[in-house]
Structures are given as C-alpha cells and as structure tokens.
Design brief:
The protein has 14 helices and seven strands. By secondary structure, it is of the alpha+beta class. A seven-stranded mixed sheet has the order 5-6-2-1-3-4-7. A hairpin with a 5-residue loop joins strand 3 and strand 4. Helix 4 packs parallel to helix 9 and helix 11 packs antiparallel against helix 14. The longest helix is centred in the C-terminal third of the chain and has 37 residues. The radius of gyration is 22 Å and the shape is globular.
Length: 407
C-alpha cells in the first residue's frame, strides 16, 4: 500500500510540475509573442524549453519514453501557454496532442519506430487532400495539405488520403497515414491571417513521396473512427486513454486553447484597469469604478464556468474510454458528437465573453497594432472561425437525432 501511495504522490508531483513549468514561462512567452507572430512559429529556444520541461512527451506512453499524464494535465498546460500567447500554445498543442491519437489509431507494430523513445511530435489535418497510389512495398503520395498547425517542429505528419476505388455506396475510399518529415516539404505560406499567425499552420507538399505499407491504415474515415473495446494503444499500454474517440477530444482541445486566450485577454484588461482611469468624469481609477469591476467580474465568471465545463467534459470522455475498454459500453459516435459539441460551445461562449465584456469596454488604445489585447483579440477571432467551431450547427442536428433515436 505504501508503494502505491508513493507512486501516486510522484505522479501528482509530475503533473503539478508540468503545469507550474508552463506558468513560469508566461512572462517570457508574453514578451516573445510579437516576434512569434512575425516569424510564424516560436523559435528554437522556446522549443528547447518545451523539450526540457517534458511538454512534448506528456501524452506519449511511458513504455515509449513518454510521461503518459492524464488529459486534464495536458490541457492545463495548454491553457497556461495560451494565457501567455495563443499562437505558441496552438502550435504546441496541435502537434503534441496527436501522440495520443497515434497510439489509438495505428497498429502496435509501428509504435516503437514512430514514437522513437518519446521523440514523436506530429501535426495532423483530417481533410483528405492527398492521393495515394499503390506501389511496390507501399504507397506513393501526391498533393498539398493546408493548415498543418504545429508542423515546424513535427517529426511526423498524420493525415487522410484518397485511396483508389470507391466504397459500396459510391463514396471515395479513404486512408489514414503517418508520414515521417522527410516525406513532405513545408511551404513558407503562413502568417497572413487575421490571427494565430504564429501557430505554425503552414502547408505541406507530398511530391511522388514514398510511404512504406506499414504506415498506412486503409479504409478509415477519421470523422467516425473508433474501436469497440481495446484499441492498439490501450491493449499495448493498459491505459484506456488510448481507446477514446477524437472528434470530441479535438473540439475540447480547441476550447482549452480559447479559454487560455480568454484568460490572456482578462489579464491584460486587469493590467489596463490598474493604470488607466475611466473615460468620463470624475476620471476615477478603473479599479474603483463599479462598471469596470462588473465587466471584469462578469468575464471572469464566464471563463471559470467554461473552464469547469471543459474539465467536466474531459472526465466524461475518460469515463467513456474506460467503459469502452471494460466492455460495459462502447465509446459511441453519439458520445463523441456530444462531447465535441460541448467543446465547440465553449469556444463560442469564451469568444462572446471577451468580445462583449472586455473588448467593448477596454478602450480604443488597447486595439493599437502590437498591443497585447489587440493580438489576443485577433487570435480569439481566428479561433472562433476555425473549421471545428463551424461544425457546431451541423453537429446539433446529429446530437438531436442520436438523443431522440431518430434516423
């Protein structure tokens, strides 16, 4: 019993240490945010800080050189990073989070090779814009993938492709692949968006690239890809976290990034409250003005509610993964849609809290180009326009059909 408590205590220390490390970087990441936006991704020094802190290894199995922390710890780190700079957090999150998906989706036979003793960093994009052609020993990949967030430091890319032939219903056959970085070329085509210009969301090009057969899973559509019971990862590592569905975990991840950005905006709003006065007589300090206090308090409560809902959704996600592995209840598409819907709702609610309570009251000078508030406002605007939150309305209909037992 003592040994078990020691192990548990050590795990708690590791998790708390990761979150504190991210918190300790906040000041430096805030200072670097303007440069990150200009350069389109964070620099090598920040990359080394993340490596030394163990951030990239958080979701890699211990047996593969990782830390194998829970999803709540991972997203607490993401929130802390986004509280400093959303671009930096986005670039990091959407490359390191796919270590979890890789363990779930791909056969155990390639785990040692791809995890590479904890070195895996993998950007991903679900749109099947690549065409795969069978060749001797594998596949030839051709095409361009846009919006590959986190690609600058990725060792691999996980994506979907169009395979030869069609399904029985006439739809195209799709494949799931993991490609090492020497198979593709990164384009210098990022940085001209409204926000998140430092997120490293460049395009990549496959030009007659060879992919070994073992790196392709045929006839897989990531919009509805899951295992009833064990996945390769949960079977290999004994952790049900590697047997969940991931349209939901991705939606929850975008929510974590947005909530961190909301706190970023609130922190700067507080800074401005402490140094500026009200715009109308008697020109009192904003920290003594009932309206500014109300606007600040309103935004804080809304962000706290969103954060609580985020971690509740993560608990439900993990419960569904445990039940799936135990064989008591499958991790269904309905559950995936519902939890993903919660994540998308939180993205929109956070954006609205910042827009209504903070942006409309902070004052025009905070919107000057290069101001911290101006940057995070643009980043949040870009996030709420991301393709994942855009799925919110169509997913409502799916959720209703599933809950009501309709076709």
């Amino acid at each position: 019993m003592t040994v078990l408590n020691t192990v548990d205590d050590q795990q708690v220390k590791v998790r708390e240490g990761l979150v504190q490390a991210a918190r300790d970087m906040r000041g430096e990441l805030i200072v670097r945010a303007e440069r990150v936006e200009r350069d389109t991704f964070y620099d090598g020094a920040v990359h080394r800080w993340f490596q030394e802190a163990g951030f990239y290894r958080m979701l890699i199995p211990e047996a593969q050189g990782g830390l194998e922390v829970d999803l709540a710890t991972f997203y607490r780190v993401v929130i802390e990073l986004a509280r400093a700079d959303m671009s930096t957090a986005w670039c990091f999150c959407l490359s390191s989070n796919h270590a979890l998906m890789f363990g779930n989706w791909f056969p155990r036979e390639i785990h040692d090779e791809v995890y590479d003793d904890g070195r895996l960093i993998a950007a991903s994009m679900y749109a099947p814009t690549i065409r795969a052609t069978p060749v001797d020993g594998g596949w030839k990949l051709d095409g361009t993938v846009n919006y590959c967030s986190g690609i600058p430091y990725s060792t691999h890319f996980i994506g979907q492709c169009v395979l030869p032939g069609t399904n029985a219903d006439g739809s195209p056959r799709l494949g799931l692949y993991v490609a090492p970085k020497d198979a593709y070329r990164r384009l210098d085509d990022w940085g001209n968006m409204l926000g998140l210009n430092g997120s490293g969301s460049h395009s990549i090009v496959f030009d007659d690239a060879f992919l070994p057969e073992r790196f392709m899973v045929e006839d897989v559509n990531l919009a509805d890809y899951g295992f009833d019971g064990h996945s390769p990862g949960s079977l290999a590592y004994g952790n049900p976290m590697y047997s969940g569905r991931h349209m939901s975990s991705f939606g929850i991840g975008v929510a974590a990034l947005t909530i961190g950005g909301g706190y970023n905006a609130l922190d700067e709003y507080e800074n401005i409250m402490r140094v500026r006065k009200t715009p109308l007589p008697p020109f009192a300090p904003r920290t003594e003005d009932p309206d500014f206090l109300r606007w600040y308090g309103s935004a804080l409560v809304k962000l706290q509610v969103a954060e609580a809902a985020l971690f509740h959704a993560l608990d439900r996600w993990m419960d569904a993964a445990r039940a799936n592995v135990a064989g008591t209840e499958t991790f269904s598409a309905a559950t995936d849609n519902l939890l993903g819907g919660i994540g998308r709702e939180l993205v929109v609610q956070t954006w609205e809290a910042v827009d209504r309570d903070l942006y409309r009251t902070v004052g025009a000078s905070a919107s000057r180009r290069g101001e911290r508030f101006e940057r995070v406002f643009r980043d949040l605007a870009q996030a709420v326009g991301h393709r994942n939150p855009q799925l919110k309305e169509p997913t409502y209909r799916l959720i209703a059909n599933e809950q009501l037992g309709l076709a």
